[in-house]
Amino acid sequence: MEDLAAEQPRGVSHRELFAAFFKIGICGFGGVAGWVRPIIVDERGWLNDREFAELLGASSVLPGANTVNLAVMLGDRFQGASGAATALVALLLAPLAILIGIASLYDHFAMQPEVRSALAGAAAATAGLVLGNAYKLIKALRGDVLALAIAAFTFASAGFFHLSLLVILAITIPGSVLLFVLYGRRS
């Protein structure tokens, strides 16, 4: 983790943090997870794919929403506590305002067949975004056999064996730490 912090640019301003996370929040209909990597890695260049995968992994094992945790951690990395607050407010501002408006409309029109069809389409699009991001994250781990094995175990635990998230985390977190300590990272 020391070399991860050493490689980070420190010139990201509060305004840049706000703009990036506001964009993530406003674009993230159906979930912001599909927008975080493209904006943080591809568009802004704040992290590379491997750094993003590691930060996302760390934010995923903490309580709360991964993207919220990631916003706080990245904001803190660049601007300390005020950067964490800036990224968090920016990420949540637009979605909360939009949610309040949509919730009142949904309450009125929820049983309409067209609304039900639109929601089914949105669910399919969200699944596509999740699969696309998973592919990019796996690509970033190419050559790291240990990390890929842990990812495969985690996928199988949830997808095939239907283990609960708490059980998966209870096995995977200490198990992966132990494996990396014993065998080291081969990157």
Automatic annotation (TrEMBL):
It is a multi-pass membrane protein. It holds the Pfam family Chromate_transp. InterPro entries: CHR_Transporter, Chromate_transpt. It is found in: Cell membrane. One of its GO terms (cellular component) is plasma membrane. Keywords: Cell membrane, Membrane, Transmembrane, Transmembrane helix. Signal peptide: none annotated. Its main location: membrane. GO terms for molecular function: chromate transmembrane transporter activity. The chain crosses the membrane at residues 20-40, 84-106, 118-138, 167-184. Belongs to the chromate ion transporter (CHR) (TC 2.A.51) family. This is Chromate transporter. It comes from Methylocella tundrae.
